[in-house]
């Protein structure tokens, strides 16, 4: 029962590899961003796997693009 609840809690969320592909960076970069607090995932309490919400990644990408567009 608890495993099923945990699975459903992470349904629709994106694991590190796919999130890295979406953002155009390596999985290691995402792990480093997690460590630095730049992009913090939700962790599965059982497995420790990192999960991201698509909206979270979209917001992060939009902010990163906006930061690059600001004139120096």
Written description of the protein model:
The protein has 72 residues and is mainly alpha-helical. It has a single domain (2-69), classed as Multidrug-efflux Transporter Regulator, Chain: A, Domain 2, CATH 1.10.1660.10. Helix content is 58%, strand content 10%. The chain is built from four helices and three strands, in the order αβααββα. The chain has helices spanning 2-9, 16-23, 27-36, 54-69; strands at residues 14-15, 42-43, 50-52. A three-stranded antiparallel β-sheet has the order 1-3-2. A hairpin with a 6-residue loop joins strand 2 (42-43) and strand 3 (50-52). Helix 2 (16-23) crosses helix 3. The longest helix is centred in the last third of the chain and has 16 residues, at 54-69. The chain is elongated and about 50 Å long. The termini are far apart.
Reconstruct the topology from this structure:
Blueprint: H1 2-9, E1 14-15, H2 16-23, H3 27-36, E2 42-43, E3 50-52, H4 54-69
Antiparallel strand pairs: 1-3, 2-3
